[in-house]
Amino acid sequence: MTVIQVENLGKKYTIGHQKGTRYQTLRDTLAHTGRGIVQRLRHPLSPNREIVDLEEIWALRDVNFEIKQGERVGIIGRNGAGKSTLLKILSRITHPTTGRVTLNGRVASLLEVGTGFHPELSGRENIYLNGAILGMTRQEIKRKFDEIVAFAEVEKFLDTPVKHYSSGMYVRLAFAVAAHLEPEILLVDEVLAVGDAQFQKKCLGKMDEVAQEGRTVFFVSHNMGAIGSLCNKVILLENGQISDNGETTVVITRYLAESIQNKSERLERLRYSGYGKQIRFSQIMLLSEDGNNVQFGEPIRYKLTLHADITFENLSIGSSIFDLSGICIGTLFTKETFSISEQQPLILELCIMNITLAPGTYYAGFSIGWGGADGRHDLDMIIGTPLFQILSFSSKNMIVSRWQTNWGSIVFCHATLSILERGIPK
Ligand SMILES: Nc1ncnc2c1ncn2[C@@H]1O[C@H](COP(=O)(O)OP(=O)(O)OP(=O)(O)O)[C@@H](O)[C@H]1O
After folding, report:
1. Was domain 267-407 assigned CATH 2.70.50.60?
2. In testing the pocket of ligand 1, which one of 22, 51, 84 has its CB within 8 Å of the most ligand atoms?
3. For the chain, domain boundaries
4. What is the CB neighbour count within 10 angstroms for residue 83?
5. Start and end of every ABC transporter domain (predicted)?
6. Which CATH number applies to 2-260?
7. For the chain, which terminus, N or C, has the lower number of CB atoms within 10 Å?
8. How many angstroms separate the alpha carbon of residue 193 from the centre of ligand 1?
């Protein structure tokens, strides 16, 4: 059954450029907590700010898609791609300029701090208010009440007006309410970023549960790990338009590969700030037939070109490999050391052997420095290139031809299984 149908959706904003102001993103809003919102409402554009120019922005344009019941949909895209605008339209906070949205079911959304919360009312009263908005009876809300309070961890503050809550408490309660009041469609924006890591994990678990119950979850995030673990489908927005829509790993891989590729055109952009002052990498390449792919089980070889402004001795290379969610899979510091002379480029080959990295997409990071794992001082550090694929491989005793991402990034190739004891039948 189709629960969300979006047709020719477009949203146009007209903005006036003034000196000293700019449009605030959701993240800005969150950073300033609920108080910031109130202040901005009380102080709309002050009269002495002169509007210089009017500009039209299409935050969304010609957006079409259909979501079936029980789908867990991730919305990804760069800053300003239109993700929050899409969620605001779906939750009827904003009206579209063109097109239409058809929703089939009760919607609960968690978009901005305090959406649906009344600041003067207590946590308890807001839970009932939100339940009522969602069309639940008092009895139904009562049944869910304790679960909501326990999940949000706000027992002690239940009778305090929510305007006194910290932004973390606000979000915890808002999430608990949205997820527990049995919406048929749950819309969640990045707001989870406000909570701590443990709470984020709890929220992801809860969203998973909601989806398992056959409800539809719509989730905007910049965290590819979270999108990857929760969503079975991903929509990629680019400049207000859908540029990809499909199976999670396929869309995420394409998106990350492109953004890393774009960045790695210039090594400078991947350099950690403050590094590379007197010695630096000037080129980093994967040595393989096509420069992009390595067969499973084959060594990974890099060509590193270094430049130095003064002579250095006893240097070593540090190198790590990351998966596409940014998790570091492993690191090495070379035992071999080298020296480099002033203004004389040095070209090195780094070879990592016996690496049983699972088929998939990865990227590397490198450092030049002194010392190793027991104490390291780095002089240059670049993370994000090269991006490469480990290609699958099939043989009789290996099962890496159809490797599943949830099996992890390392294939344990060398293992033994032996029978220690066999029970004698009674
Ligand atoms: N209320 C508004 N007034 C004017 N312009 C807006 C408004 N809301 C959004 N925009 C503009 O619309 C475009 C899309 O913004 P939106 O917040 O939907 O992007 P996003 O993908 O959610 O970004 P982010 O990842 O930074 O949250 C941006 O260019 C933004 O500046």
Report:
1. yes
2. 84
3. 2-260, 267-407
4. 26
5. 41-264
6. 3.40.50.300
7. C
8. 18
Of ligand 1's atoms, which has the minimum distance to the CA of residue 15? 4
Q: Please report the atom of ligand 1 found closest to the CA of residue 237.
A: 21
Q: Tokens 């002089």 sit at which residue? A: 379
To 5 degrees, how large is the angle CA 8–CA 13–CA 18?
Answer: 165
Residue 173 burial (C-beta neighbours within 10 Å; 0-12, 13-18, 19+): buried
CA dihedral 109, 114, 120, 126 (to 10 degrees): 30
Domains 2-260 and 267-407 share a fold: no
Q: Is 74 in the pocket of ligand 1 (CB under 6 A)?
A: no
Tens of pLDDT, residue by residue, the chain (426 residues) = 899 999 999 999 987 765 544 444 444 434 443 333 333 333 334 444 455 667 889 999 999 999 998 899 999 988 889 998 998 899 888 899 999 999 988 888 777 644 668 888 899 998 998 888 777 888 888 999 999 999 888 889 999 998 888 877 888 888 888 888 878 888 888 766 556 667 777 788 888 888 888 889 998 887 777 787 788 899 999 999 999 999 888 888 888 777 766 655 578 878 888 899 999 999 999 998 877 888 888 999 999 999 999 999 999 999 999 987 778 899 999 999 999 999 899 999 999 998 899 988 888 999 999 998 889 999 999 988 888 888 877 665 566 667 777 788 999 988 899 999 998 887
Whether 98 contacts 10, CB under 8 Å: yes
| Residue closest by Cα to atom 30 of ligand 1 | 80
Ligand 1 touching residue 26 (CB < 6 A)? yes
